[in-house]
Amino acid sequence: MTSAPSPAWRSISLASEVAVGAVICGIVVLFLGLPIFAIIERAVRETSFFDAVSSSGVTEALRLSLETTTISLVLIVLFGTPVAYVLSRSRFPGHQLIDTLIDLPIVLPPAVGGLGLLMAFGRRGILGGWLDSAGIEIAFTTTAVIMAQTFVASPFYIRAAKAGFDAMDADLEAVAYTLGSSRFEAFRRVAVPVAMPSLLAGAVMAWARALGEFGATIMFAGSFAGRTQTVPLAIYRYLETGIDVPLALSAVLILISFAVLFAFRLLTRRAALTL
Amino acid sequence: MVIIGPSGSGKTLVLRTIAGVLSPDRGRILLNGRTLFDSERHINVPAQDRRVGYVPQDYALFPHLTVEANIGYGLRGSSSENRARIAEMLDLVGLTTQRQLRPRSLSGGQRQRVALARALAVRPDLLLLDEPFSALDAPTRMSLLEDVRGLIAATRIPTVFVTHDRNEALQLAEYLAVLMSGRIRQVGTPSEVFGCPADEDVANFVGVETITPGRVRAVEDGVALVEVGTHLVEGGAGVGPGDEVLVCLRPEDVVLGSRTESGAATSARNHLPARVTRIVASGPYIRVELDAGFTIVSLITKHALADLKLVPGSEVVATFKAATIHLIRKGGASS
Questions:
Q1: pTM for this entry
Q2: Chain B contact present for A169, CB below 8 A
Q3: Is the confidence metric ipTM above 0.90 for this complex?
Q4: pLDDT for B266
Q5: pLDDT tens for each residue of B250-309
Q6: Number of Cβ atoms within 10 Å of the Cβ of B74
Q7: Could B47 and A174 be called an inter-chain contact, meaning their C-beta atoms sit closer than 8 Å?
Q8: pLDDT band for position B334 (50/70/90)?
Q9: What pLDDT band is residue A110 in, cutting at 50, 70 and 90?
């Protein structure tokens, strides 16, 4: 009797199934979209929006965020790509261990990451004394901001890049070798371009994660205007003085993020078409 | 040179070790007297220095590069030299008009030719082709087989070609190696391998369908007389009286005739009375299984089937020439 569908089930028409789907989608879109809309709407409605955007605290935080995330992203791509490639292409003792270690910052609360960085590179950290005697101070500087961002964001890039290399036919490199390519040349001329869509996707995710970084930064770099106070930290800091500046910062952040994600979407569609 | 073997026998592995993208545990690989690999002397020339061209089964064209960039990938000369070589290769494989396309917009046959041109462009000492026709549909395969044969002949580059397809092997091979379960079982010309398989497995694989045990009664003028069940079969050589052998007979060498035509043919050698047990269409031919005390398989045309009015149970005479018989001596080398 189990094979016969019940009359109630049969009576659900296609139209009502579509309606159910539409309602669920509507709820999700509303839930994700409403806060975004609310910020933009309030920011524009508040008469002081353009004053707030052009105030020195806001422009400084924006400049710092863009600078640090750009440098973090360059570091992540420069070091992360070879790591992802090696993890994808070779098996060695400790491979699984390193793979897990790289994923760890995704799971950890960012504050734990910040504390860890402090314990490693802070004045009283493991390398602190050695760095101090060399005259290098890291904690509570712009360098610390970049390190915090790199620490929390790099797994997103390495993960995506490794998936891209994994999905690639290893015969492509084998053929490149037989055509006279060294391992590095095959990596540069074949593996990287073929995996490019995955690399770009990972880079965008990592950049977005770095841009939103708060917990690790405030632990390891503090919140000093113009030096370590990136946009998320500034939003939190200016909340004391009123809603204007946080609203303006949030609105600008939303616009930049949306523009980058949207541009990336168009870019990958074009890349997918040419491959 | 063609390496033929069933799937999983290690054909691709052999090619990959020669290409240098896989290192064998032990052994030696030599090319024109040059040692590419020697486990005892710890020699392992890296793939990029071997000058061995490799075309894997799915061609592995670089998806992000155009046809001409694929072909030019391995070229190391000046840009004008490279351009000339690319143009030459495009002309050779007839893809000049497709030079700007990317692999995904090419047909299977065109992809194969790009892969071939890419490997040949760098003038390798040896070319390795892994089942180059397996990804193509049957009509394309037939026309490309001759093209590839011509191309390889024109470049005069020694080629190792791997396949599991007997027809491909017959068409392309100068020499044939049979690889089964990781071992080379037999090396020879196609007619040697197909006519005189070295053992039962090889015989089965090269399409000998009648393999039946017998005992050599006598050898007359170098031709063996073999008892198979109650019959006496004449043919084969290289064995002595008393030897236990396997009698091998290819289905296309067995001719069927009706009982009445050949009369009481039972006395003649290699005319065996038999009963039809099964009739199966096999491509353009008909495969007829016969019971003559042991199973004989015969491949006949549709016309022959109609002329003889064969149905399961028909009584026929199976005839074959002594020269088509091949004997494998049990537990030892064969002729």
A1: 0.79
A2: yes
A3: no
A4: 45
A5: 888 888 887 765 544 444 568 888 888 888 888 788 888 888 888 888 888 888 888 888
A6: 22
A7: yes
A8: very low
A9: very high
Greater pLDDT, B64 or B242: B64
Q: What is the pLDDT of residue B193?
A: 87
CATH superfamily of B2-174: P-loop containing nucleotide triphosphate hydrolases (3.40.50.300)
Tell me the per-residue pLDDT of A13-35, one tens digit each, with 9 for 90 and over: 678 888 899 999 999 999 999 99
CATH architecture under which domain A46-274 falls: Orthogonal Bundle (1.10)
Arithmetic mean of pLDDT over chain B: 85
Best mutation target, A175, A181, A187, A192, to test chain B (most B CBs within 10 A): A175
Non-local CB neighbours of A144 within 8 Å, separated by 6+ positions:
A117, A121, A138, A217, A220, A221, A228
Q: Phi, psi (5° rounding) for residue B107?
A: -80, 165
- Is B54 in contact with A194 (Cβ distance < 8 A)? no
The topology (CATH level 3) of B202-329 is: OB fold (Dihydrolipoamide Acetyltransferase, E2P) (2.40.50)
Tell me the count of A-B CB pairs closer than 8 A. 68
Residue A189 at interface with chain B, using a CB cutoff of 8 Å = yes
Where does CATH 2.40.50.100 sit in chain B? Answer: 202-329
Nearest-CA distance B143 → chain A (Å): 26
- Candidates B11, B40, B331; CA nearest to B169 is B11
Contacts of B126 in chain A (CB under 8 A): none
Return the pLDDT at B305: 83
For B64, the closest of A179, A182, A194 (CB atoms) is A194
Q: Which residues pair with B226 in a beta bridge?
A: B216, B233
- For A139-170, write each residue's pLDDT tens digit: 899 999 999 999 999 999 999 999 999 999 98
Q: What is the pLDDT at residue B154?
A: 82
Is residue B27 packed enough to be buried (19+ CB in 10 Å), middle (13-18) or exposed (0-12)? exposed
Tokens of B73: 């990938």
**DSSP output for B262-324:** T-SGGGSTTEEEEEEEEEEEETTEEEEEEESSSEEEEEE-HHHHHHHT--TT-EEEEE--GGG
Instruction: Tell me the CA distances in angstroms from B96 to B85, B113, B122, B143, B210, one per residue in order.
Output: 12, 12, 18, 19, 50
At residue B30, the pLDDT reads 87
Asked if A174 and B21 come within 8 Å (Cβ–Cβ), the reply is yes
Residues of chain B contacting A177 with CB distance shorter than 8 Å: 19-21, 46-48
Spell out the domain ranges in chain A: 46-274
CA atoms within 13 A of residue B33's CA, in its CB half-sphere: 0
Which residue from A172, A182, A193 is facing B60, i.e. has the nearest CB? A172
Contact (CB<8Å) A174/B54: yes
The boundaries of every CATH 3.40.50.300 domain in chain B are 2-174
- The residue type of A132 is D
Q: What distance in Å separates the CA atoms of residue A176 and residue B75, rounded to the nearest whole number?
A: 11
